[in-house]
Amino acid sequence: MFIDRVKVRLDGGNGGNGCVSFYRAKYIVAGGPDGGDGGNGGDVIIKADQNMTTLMDFRYKRVFKASSGEDGSRNRRSGKAGSDVVIRVPVGTIIREVNSGKIMADMSSSGEERIIIKGGRGGRGNQHFATPSRQAPRFSERGKLAKSYEVVLELKLIADAGLIGFPNVGKSTILSMVTNATPKIGNYHFTTLSPNLGVVRTGYGKDFVLADIPGLIEGAHEGQGLGHEFLRHVERTKVLIHVVDASGMEGGDPVEGIEKINAELRLYNEKLKERPQIIVCNKMDILPEAQENLEKIKAKYEPQGYTVFDVCAAGNTGLDTLMAHIATVLEEYPENVVFEEDYDEFVDAPEEEVAFTVEKVDEGVYRVSGRGIDKMLGYTNLETEKGFAFFQKYLRDKGIIAALDEAGIEEGDTVLLSELAFDYYK
Questions:
Q1: Would you report the helix, strand and coil content of the chain in percent, each value rounded to 5?
Q2: Same domain membership, residue 311 and residue 368
């Protein structure tokens, strides 16, 4: 079964908590703080694997989670770091974040690895907070929580050349004649229900990968027929091989058919109109009208820069010349083409603290929000007296207490900070 689109959830490993501990030994009355650090959480890593051809492996497993770091312990022992989770995907897979729709990674090269989610940093133990004036700190940092994303994996097959055109024009027959691929071939529409790949071995240049893109029809970019499922694979091809039924046996004017398919490509992605395109007139031996249609196609498209070939795929006539020309075009085509722009903001988001906001949400209830506050809450152990005092000092130093006073807060009112609620007293 060919599966080229799945939704999965990716969870990074959380950082372990720092430890609060003091050295204890015989004859030592006041040992210093010796709480160890928490271990870092594991990363979520995507790796492109050339041995995979579909996303079938993700059919039953939809959640991938890196392990969390262990908490620190006494005697300055750090917690064990969490294990990374490595997710293998076919070459050509795009990882798209669901909420924003942005590309997190475009895995276009075999063996390429990308860190999609960085594991949370482990919290520091109380050994790091000892100062001359605070020699027995009874608080530590909590481990940083890792990010979690719902993503869509989209496979866009990478091929050097792609066979496009209406159903039943002979694309699969051409593929079977010039490669070792064995696509299903039948004399009816939508015989091919999934893309097929084959390698063309040539003596004219480098070998190249040829793809048979299943039947596009008018309205495919809007979800009509099967084309909307496979138009994404056209984006990956460097050269488009537009196959038409020159005999007209399937009905309709071949020239009109070419225009309709090209319109669908442009409506789906404007960049596709810049892709080199070769027109292949197939089934030249079926009806006399084929030669007349060939002349019409040449008269219209050769002045526009298109190269037109006439072949008979079923009889393996003209295919060698066609493959030689494709190989020549590919030699002049750049090796590395950027198909998608990806955003590093998901992995390496800046840590700077933005200005906080104070909002009166109800009578006697005020909400304070800001990235710096969320960060401090994540690292500070508020369950200890020292930790809570440390946080109160942060509120004063950052001007949050002053901002609450300016907003009209009174003693006994409620302050909401992230998921926590406090009663306000001076």
A1: 25, 25, 50
A2: no
Q: Residue 219 class from Cβ within 10 Å (0-12 exposed, 13-18 middle, 19+ buried)?
A: middle
- Which domain, by its residues, includes 250? 161-331
Q: Is 347 a domain residue?
A: no
Whole-number pLDDT of residue 1: 45
The β-bridge relationship of strands 420-423 and 63-65 is: unpaired
Ordered strands of the 44-49 beta sheet: 85-90, 44-49, 113-117
Cβ distance 161 to 208 under 8 Å? yes
| Residue that is last in its domain, among 129, 155, 181 | 155
Q: How far apart are the first and last CA of the chain?
A: 67
- Say how far apart CA 192 and CA 173 lie, in whole Å: 11
Looking at residue 354, its pLDDT comes to 45
One domain for residues 183 and 145: no
Using the 3D structure, point to which of 281, 297, 331 is the last residue of a domain: 331
Q: Which residues of the chain have pLDDT under 50?
A: 1, 186, 188-193, 219-228, 348-354
Task: Report the amino acid identity of residue 46.
Answer: I
Number of H helices, E strands in the chain: 8, 18
Q: How far apart are CA 81 and CA 15, in angstroms?
A: 8
* Farthest CA pair distance, the chain: 108
Tokens of 275: 């892709």
* Model pLDDT, residue 189: 46
Cα 156 to the chain's mean position, in Å? 11
At 267, which CATH number? Answer: 3.40.50.300
Are 115 and 12 members of one domain?
yes
pLDDT of residue 28: 84
For 127-163, what is each residue's pLDDT tens digit? 988 877 778 888 788 888 899 999 999 887 667 888 8
What Cα–Cα distance (Å) separates residue 415 from each residue in 376, 390, 404, 411?
16, 17, 9, 11
Residue with tokens 């009355």: 29
- Pick from 243, 154, 234: which is nearest to 195 by CA? 234
Number of domains in the chain: 3
Quick one: 208 and 241 in the same domain?
A: yes
Name the residue type at position 158. I
pLDDT score of 308: 94
From the CA atom positions of the chain, what is the Rg in Å?
31
H or E segment and range at residue 279: strand 277-282
